[in-house]
TrEMBL record, chain A:
This is FAD binding domain-containing protein. It holds the Pfam family CO_deh_flav_C. SUPFAM superfamilies: CO dehydrogenase flavoprotein C-terminal domain-like, FAD-binding/transporter-associated domain-like. Signal peptide: none annotated. Keywords: Oxidoreductase. SMART domains: CO_deh_flav_C (SM01092). The keyword Translocase does not apply. Residues 1-230 form the FAD-binding PCMH-type domain.
From TrEMBL, chain B:
It holds the Pfam family Fer2. The keyword Iron applies. SUPFAM superfamilies: 2Fe-2S ferredoxin-like, CO dehydrogenase ISP C-domain like. PANTHER family: OXIDOREDUCTASE WITH IRON-SULFUR SUBUNIT (PTHR45331:SF2), OXIDOREDUCTASE, IRON-SULPHUR BINDING SUBUNIT-RELATED-RELATED (PTHR45331). Residues 4-80 form the 2Fe-2S ferredoxin-type domain. This is (2Fe-2S)-binding protein. It comes from Nocardioides hwasunensis. The keyword Transmembrane helix does not apply. Keywords: Iron, Metal-binding, Oxidoreductase. InterPro entries: 2Fe-2S-bd (IPR002888), 2Fe-2S-bd_dom_sf (IPR036884), 2Fe-2S_ferredoxin-like_sf (IPR036010), 2Fe-2S_ferredoxin-type (IPR001041), 2Fe2S_fd_BS (IPR006058), Aldehyde_Oxdr_Iron-Sulfur (IPR052914), Beta-grasp_dom_sf (IPR012675).
UniProtKB/TrEMBL annotation, chain C:
It comes from the Bacteria. Residues 146-167 are annotated as: Disordered. Keywords: Molybdenum, Oxidoreductase. SMART domains: Ald_Xan_dh_C. It comes from Nocardioides hwasunensis. It holds the Pfam family MoCoBD_1. This is Xanthine dehydrogenase family protein molybdopterin-binding subunit. SUPFAM superfamilies: CO dehydrogenase molybdoprotein N-domain-like, Molybdenum cofactor-binding domain. The keyword Oxidoreductase applies. Gene3D superfamilies: Aldehyde oxidase/xanthine dehydrogenase, a/b hammerhead, Aldehyde oxidase/xanthine dehydrogenase, molybdopterin binding domain. Residues 30-140 form the Aldehyde oxidase/xanthine dehydrogenase a/b hammerhead domain.
């Protein structure tokens, strides 16, 4: 780990002012960069891997952004709220998709350190990215190629990717958030803006070297999460029963009226270079009579153009089955 | 510049130290404060051996900078009991033979102590899930679950 | 000093057996337990090893100028300037110990030791390591077991190969023949405790605190490496944070600490990083196996063929016997067993939890299940029918003890074997397919000489001294028990000192052989000291104190030697076991979860029910990982990453977590073994073996799909 300076800020303005480069959005950080650190579970991990070497860390974990409030039908969650605290909050007790996306992630210890702001900004787990000795990685070294294409890619993405980079966005929470139409409030040197979580991340097939759209000094201050009038659920499929990222996952929000899918939103995890909103599946589902056959059709539509390499061959099929299962369980359709 | 002064309370004792900013809370404990009970199994948040309490919550000391512990109360395995006066969780681990080599044990014990303070669980399967952030390569898991549940049973009685 | 062979049959005395809590338990639950690195002098410098980024070639230059200029750096050591040390031989066999590092410019695997940075603190050393510039002349590595360019060794280092009868005849006599290939992936030991070594020189004397499962051998090898008298080398390791075989050999990091301390003239500490734990301390090699079984309609085996191909590192030895269980497991007249080693540019494989047997058992016991299906015979019955009541691999001598039949029968009872519907894919609960599977284990016997000193003090208390390690298996506790019982003392009156090469020499804590060796050595040393004191029986503290009289203490040493089977007219048994699994497989998602796992074990006299049970439970957990999760993946495709391990991280190399493990049922059957006075057989490794096959067979029963590959992951079941 390269030497760095550590400072802690007490207010949002000071935080924004401290960060003058856009390193938080870039895939790599160097000694000239100043970046935020919250729980540190991504930031320090990547520094320990030797992939990141920022010159200054600005600790934002103690900013007064630790409240959860219900504002009409929208949950407003401070960026410094930990995953554990949000999962335990009474406001999410009935919002299964959100609660389970948190409780099925990482471990109890990590959840009591990690913030929701940091979670949505976590970086890919691709081990070629995370080992600076690997020379072929377009994310770290644009133009160098992608070692994962012919290498070990079992945990890699098949949507929003091409042969340039197949890195997965591994957040469970972010998949729930895009499915719930959540927004992030940002505060920057020039004031604030609010954008959909769905617009926060940059797809690998667009620019592998950039992970999100934060401008220099922009701080995530809050998540705004509309609470839907629908049933929801999150299913995570992984080899190990716990403490593992998703091989595939599905977030489903659905309201069935007289057998018809009056409202439906679907997200997929473990398969996208960004938290994946399954809009193609939704198109097939919306306003239709809920049935297993329809779910199969919707899942197939979403995965139709998946980009696979030998290591990810099985993923579209597993993702299809994961989605069908979760649509079935949330809608309680039996045939 | 790349050093940092901080105040931290460890096992009830206040410390003022100056550290390399890169120093983790884990290495602060092990190297500077000679509290070697907390173990390092991966240094990257993936095993739980380094679990300690910060302000009463179980966290991973390897992914916490020492500097981030400023003003916090840190509790390590050395702070909850001694061989003569074991904490009920330590006693339960001994009685249930919930370890072999002991490398994960400090982390398991600290995790279990915190779990017993948390109230969002009830079943054996809950304990399995909520103790899954602590790997045990010796495979003492079923006996760790026994130990946790035996302490819960005494608490309730 | 007395040297005696184990007393013959019939003299077995029951040892306590009951579950005494671990004598070292309080140290472990309070964090006071001193592992090797905790004992290192606090003023030691920190050494960080730097691995190669290529898998084969020559180092042309290690440019240390930037690293040396970095804050806190004291030295950079590489082959350019390291002192020469001799490559030692392992004490156990005429087998080469791992190469000491920095002795030449050759790179033999990805991550091979290129240099070491020594600095004041770990942070400084790690940072400086990134500033080292290493250039290479790269050659093309061979890393794939199936690569035709790889050198195939047809010598037989493990003594694995065997031919019995006439295989072709056996096959001709068969009504049914099944044949298939089985693949097991590479696994990494990954004890939770990171391996550490600290060296301090005092002139030509070397003192080390180093993680090892075998202090005696580590000290022997260091003495040989440096050409110094054995008495001038001391290796201390009272505790280690798990080994599972990875601490059996004197690995390069131990030499690296000694080399660095020599160079800088101060103590140097080395703690491996987790990624280095994947390349520096051995791993369970992958295997490709072929099994062919012939049987008559009634289930009688007529022919068994089991061949295996496994990798071995360039310029290293690793006698891994993949077919030992097959050779002795079942009564079959015609057999061919053969292991071939293929040399690859990979980090040296070594022992991991039941080396060889873990992989070989999976192939054999899966093949037997396939045979049972083919014959339409109950798999438990098939195994009972072919149970070898004498050792077919050792002149059909009677076993010194064997209760495999009881293991199988009791296990079947416990899991409710006969209540299942035997038809594949016939049992279902909602989305979950349910299946049952069985496997048997015949673990090999292993014993080596072990010396113990028993000291009786003036106050009638005693101490036991031995260089052996307690790797978490309970050696401190069972040695205390055996000594206390035979001296008539309370457990608190016996002090056990282990893990120090300056104490009487011991065999490794490995091969499931230590408990037998050390408990018998303790028994003999107690007898010797009682002889010296003119006492007999278990005299108790007062009588001991009186007999010591005015002296400070009276001590005696004794060595337990492995007995000669031919002379004793019996074949020494290892442990036997039967494993039964009940699994749930998600019919759509392919997720396998183990719902029940029953282990019934014959390990002779159980020395301590509590610690023995923990060993079997721990083995079963390792078996679940072996079956479903664990896989060290090496990059095989041509390019700069060739030979690099792609998941050298605890979040990517999946070992079982608590939530993967159901309550594990364990029972012990059988009685004291006839071969040694204490009647004990090792229980260290039998716990893991058979679990993978039992789970795989259960997956077949649940789904109707036969997976002949480990680990069995969801993608294989879609
Ligand atoms: C072993 C392991 C297993 C894990 N398993 C899972 C899992 O199963 N599912 C899952 O979803 N996640 C998992 N994670 C990831 C974990 O959830 C994230 O690391 C964590 O949520 C990040 O939050 P943090 O507060 O620690 O962020 P930090 O590490 O502090 O920050 C992450 C990034 O966000 C930036 N940042 C932080 N806060 C802000 C802010 N307010 N505004 C702008 N930028 C900010 C930082 O500069 C940094 O780049 C796992 C992590 C580990 C180590
Ligand atoms: S998948 Fe992306 S991050 Fe991984 S190696 Fe390829 S380019 Fe790099
Ligand atoms: S050492 Fe902290 S989680 Fe492994
Ligand atoms: S007791 Fe050894 S790792 Fe848990």
């Amino acid at each position: 780990m390269h030497p760095f300076t550590y400072t802690r800020v007490d207010d949002v303005e000071a935080a924004s002012a401290a960060v003058t480069t856009d390193a938080v959005s870039r895939a790599v950080q160097g000694p000239d960069d100043t970046v935020f650190i919250a729980g540190g579970t991504t930031q320090l991990d990547l520094m320990r891997d030797g992939v990141w070497s920022p010159g200054t860390l600005v600790d934002v974990s103690r900013l007064p952004l630790a409240d959860v409030e219900l504002d009409e039908d929208t949950l407003v969650v401070g960026a410094a709220v930990t995953m554990a605290d949000l999962a335990r909050h009474e406001a999410v007790a009935d919002l299964d998709v959100l609660r389970d996306s948190l409780l099925l992630a990482a471990s109890p210890q990590l959840r009591s350190m990690a913030t929701v702001g940091g979670n949505v900004l976590q970086r890919t787990r691709c081990r070629y990215f995370r080992d600076p000795e690997v020379t072929q990685c377009n994310k770290r070294r644009p133009g160098s190629g992608c070692a994962a294409i012919e290498g070990t890619a079992r945990t890699h993405a098949v949507l929003g990717v091409d042969a340039g980079c197949i890195a997965v966005h591994a957040s469970d929470l972010a998949v729930a958030l895009v499915t719930l139409d959540a927004r992030v409030r940002l505060h920057g040197p020039d004031g604030g803006r609010t954008i959909p979580v769905a617009d926060l991340h940059v797809r690998a097939d667009v620019d592998p070297a950039r992970d999100n759209v934060l401008a220099a000094g922009e701080l995530v201050t809050h998540l705004e999460i509309p609470v839907p009038d629908a049933r929801t659920g999150y299913l995570k499929v992984r080899d190990r029963a716990s403490y593992e990222f998703a091989l595939t996952s599905a977030a489903v929000v659905a309201r069935v009226e007289d057998g018809i899918l009056a409202h439906v939103a679907v997200g997929l995890g473990g398969v996208g270079s960004v938290p994946w909103r399954a809009t193609r599946a939704e198109e097939v589902l919306r306003g239709q009579r809920a049935s297993l056959a329809l779910f199969e059709q919707a899942a197939a539509a979403e995965l139709a153009d998946a980009f696979t390499v030998p290591g990810t061959d099985f993923k579209p099929e597993l993702a299809r089955r994961t989605l069908v299962r979760q649509l079935r369980d949330v809608t309680e359709v039996t045939a | 510049m790349s050093r940092h002064s901080l105040h931290v309370t460890v096992n009830g004792e206040a410390h003022a130290v100056e550290v390399d900013t890169r120093r983790s809370l884990l290495d602060l404990l092990r190297e500077d404060l000679a509290l070697t009970g907390t173990q390092k199994g991966c240094d990257q948040g993936a095993c739980g051996a380094c679990t300690v309490h910060v302000d009463g919550r179980r966290v991973l000391s390897c992914l916490t900078l020492a500097a981030q512990a400023e003003g916090r109360e840190v509790t390590t395995v050395e702070g909850i009991g001694t061989a003569d006066e074991l904490h009920p969780v330590q006693q339960a681990f001994l009685d249930c033979d919930a370890f072999q080599c002991g490398a994960c044990t400090a982390g398991q014990v600290m995790s279990a102590v915190a779990l017993l303070e948390e109230d969002d669980w009830s079943t054996r399967d809950d304990v399995r899930e909520l103790m899954s952030g602590n790997l045990c390569r010796c495979g003492a898991y079923p006996r760790i679950v026994d130990a946790v549940l035996s302490v819960r049973a005494t608490q309730e009685a | 000093m007395t040297t005696t062979t184990n007393a013959p049959a019939g003299t077995a005395t029951p040892v306590l057996g009951a579950g005494v809590t671990r004598v070292d338990g309080p140290l472990k639950v309070t964090g006071a337990v001193p592992y090797a690195d905790d004992l290192a002098p606090r003023d030691a410098l920190v050494g960080v090893l730097v691995g190669s980024t290529i898998a084969a070639g020559q180092i042309s230059l290690v440019d240390a100028s930037d690293a040396l200029a970095a804050p806190g750096v004291v030295a950079v050591i590489s082959h350019h300037d390291a002192p020469s040390v001799v490559r030692p031989n392992e004490a156990s066999a005429d087998e080469r110990a791992p190469r000491p590092p920095f002795q030449d410019a050759t790179v033999r695997f990805h991550g091979d030791h290129v240099a070491m940075v020594v600095a004041q603190t770990r942070e400084e050393a790690v940072h400086a390591a990134t500033l080292l510039h290493v250039s290479y002349d790269v050659s093309e590595p061979v890393v794939d077991l199936n690569d035709p360019r790889a050198t195939r060794e047809d010598d037989d280092p493990a003594g694995a190969d065997s031919t019995r009868g006439d295989l072709e005849r056996g096959l001709a006599e068969a009504d049914v023949v099944v044949a298939a290939d089985y693949v097991t992936g590479d696994n990494t030991n990954n004890p939770i405790g990171l391996f550490a070594a600290c060296a301090e020189w005092d002139g030509e004397s070397l003192h080390m605190w180093a993680t090892t499962q075998w202090p005696s051998n580590t000290a022997d090898c260091l003495a040989e490496a440096w050409g110094v008298p054995r008495e001038d080398v001391r290796v201390e390791c009272p505790y280690l944070g798990g080994g599972f075989g990875s601490g059996l050999r004197p690995w390069p990091y131990i030499h690296a600490a000694a080399i660095a301390a020599k160079v800088v003239g101060r103590p140097v500490r080395v703690v491996l990083s987790r990624p280095q734990m994947f390349t520096d301390v051995g791993h369970r090699p992958e295997t490709v196996q072929h099994v062919r079984l012939g049987a008559r309609r009634d289930g009688t085996l007529t022919a068994v063929e089991h061949t295996a191909t496994i990798p071995v590192a360039v310029d290293d030895d690793n006698p891994e016997n993949v077919v030992s269980g097959t050779r002795q497991g079942y009564a079959v007249e015609h057999l061919r067993a053969d292991v071939d080693q293929v040399r690859l540019h990979i980090s040296p494989p070594g022992s991991m939890r039941a080396p060889g047997e873990a992989q070989g058992n999976f192939a054999l016991e899966t093949a037997l299940d396939e045979l049972a299906v083919e014959l339409d015979i109950d798999p438990v019955r098939l195994r009972l029918h072919n149970d070898a009541t004498t050792n077919p691999d050792q002149d059909d001598l009677p076993w010194s003890s064997k209760a495999l039949d009881q293991c199988l029968r009791r296990g079947a009872e416990l899991i409710g074997w006969d209540d299942r519907d035997p038809a594949p894919r016939s049992m279902r609960d909602g989305d979950q397919l349910i299946g049952y599977g069985v496997a048997a284990v015949s673990f090999f016997y292993f014993q080596q000489p072990c010396t113990v000193r028993v000291v009786v003090r003036r106050d009638g208390t005693a101490a036991v001294h031995c260089a052996a390690m307690d790797i978490g298996t309970g050696t401190y506790t069972v040695v205390t028990q055996v000594a206390a019982e035979r001296l008539g003392l309370g457990l608190g009156d016996v002090e056990v000192v282990l893990g120090d090469s300056s104490l009487p020499p011991s065999p490794p804590a490995g091969g499931s052989g230590l408990a037998t060796a050390i408990s018998n050595a303790v028994a003999l040393a107690v007898t010797a000291v009682l002889d010296d004191l003119d006492l007999s029986g278990a005299p108790g503290r007062d009588a001991l104190s009186r007999a010591v009289g005015a002296r400070d203490e009276v001590a005696a040493e004794a060595t337990a030697e492995p007995p000669d089977p031919a002379e004793m007219g019996m074949s020494p048994s290892g442990a036997f076991g039967a494993k039964f699994a009940r699994v749930r497989v998600d019919a759509d998602l392919g997720l396998v979860r183990v719902e029940r796992l029953v282990s019934v074990i014959d390990c002779g006299q159980v020395l301590n029910e509590r610690t023995a049970r923990s060993q079997v439970i721990g083995g079963a957990v390792g078996g679940i990982g072996h079956a479903l999760l664990e896989h060290t993946v090496t990059d095989l495709h041509a390019g700069p990453q060739t030979g690099r391990i792609t998941n050298a991280h605890m979040a990517d190399y999946l070992i079982a977590v608590n939530a993967d493990v159901p309550d594990l049922e364990v029972e012990f059957v059988g009685g004291p073994d006839r071969l040694n006075p204490v009647g004990v057989k090792g229980v260290g490794e039998v716990g893991l073996c058979g679990v993978a096959a039992a789970i795989g067979n259960a997956v077949f029963h649940a789904t109707g799909r036969r997976v002949r590959r480990l680990p069995i992951t969801p993608d294989l079941l879609l």
